[in-house]
Design brief:
It is built from 8 helices and 7 strands, in the order αααβααββαββααββ. By secondary structure, it is of the alpha+beta class. It is globular and about 70 Å long. The strands form 2 sheets. It has a 5-stranded mixed β-sheet with strand order 2-4-5-7-6. The protein starts with a helix and ends with a strand. The chain has helices at residues 4-23, 31-62, 69-100, 110-120, 122-127, 145-161, 207-211, 222-232, and strands spanning 106-109, 131-134, 140-143, 171-179, 182-189, 237-241, 247-254.
């Protein structure tokens, strides 16, 4: 039986797939309708999730003495999964709204964006003893700050998740180069890498989940989101990777 968390991730990916297909049909649904639809679905799903979380909490508080260690462990796992499912729904709601609105570009210091992303992932970075190298001379670029934060965040999250090296040996490097055409931002890691034959799949919805099921799916929509955001800015995203050789994701943004 599938783990509830994996089911929640799969549900989120399927909803986005349906929304994307609907927007490409002969009679597309408007963005406003899609956002409302997702809001209703999210609300309806949260009610039973809150019930599972609440009643499992009551069981732990009022009946813990009637359960052995294994029973208490099962209930704690139920609570943890329910809480994670709520977080997934909140995140998916945010992403749907983000993708549905037009870009709002403005001069944005790239360093501030990178620092915000690293702060968000600070727990995983510290727990894994990850060394993060950030280029000293990051420029100010014209982009939608919120969307750019999500795109870079997806690449950093992917770099952290797909790395099996012992604590203290994980590496991530973030840099940016520029020319007359624009900027090229890269996130490099020394993780498990990806077979070049499957590189195009990682940008599909659920692509990383399909390639590495052993980890429980991983981020099923992060790289897809990054690709959509980059392309909406007129850029493109690429991957240079090999098995056990780490990965290097780069994307361009016009000047």
């Amino acid at each position: 039986m599938a783990h509830p968390l994996h089911q929640a991730r799969g549900w989120g990916v399927r909803v986005i797939e349906t929304m994307v297909k609907s927007s490409e049909s002969e009679k597309p649904v408007t963005n406003e309708e899609l956002v409302r639809l997702f809001g209703v679905l999210s609300h309806d799903l949260k009610s039973p999730i809150f019930a599972v979380d609440g009643f499992s909490d009551l069981l732990l508080g009022d009946y813990a003495d009637k359960l052995d260690a294994e029973g208490q462990d099962f209930l704690n796992r139920i609570r943890s999964s329910a809480q994670q499912m709520k977080r997934v729904l909140d995140e998916m709601s945010h992403l749907v709204k983000l993708l549905s609105r037009p870009n709002a570009p403005r001069p944005t210091p790239l360093r501030e964006i990178v620092e915000e992303v690293l702060h968000k992932h600070n727990f995983m970075i510290e727990e894994g003893g990850v060394r993060v190298d950030v280029a000293a001379d990051l420029p100010v670029i014209n982009a939608d700050a919120e969307k750019l934060r999500e795109a870079i965040g997806a690449l950093v999250s992917n770099a952290l998740f797909f790395n099996d090296r012992p604590a203290g040996e994980c590496r991530i490097a973030i840099d940016c180069t520029s020319d007359s055409n624009g900027y090229r931002i890269c996130v490099r890691d020394n993780g498990i890498g990806i077979d070049p034959r499957y590189a195009p799949q990682v940008f599909e919805l659920g692509g990383m989940s399909k390639l590495d099921k052993a980890r429980g799916g991983g981020p099923g929509y992060g790289l897809y989101l990054a690709k959509r955001i980059v392309e909406s800015h007129g850029g493109e995203i690429t991957l240079d990777s090999s098995l056990d050789g780490g990965s290097r994701f780069c994307f361009t943004l016009p000047a």
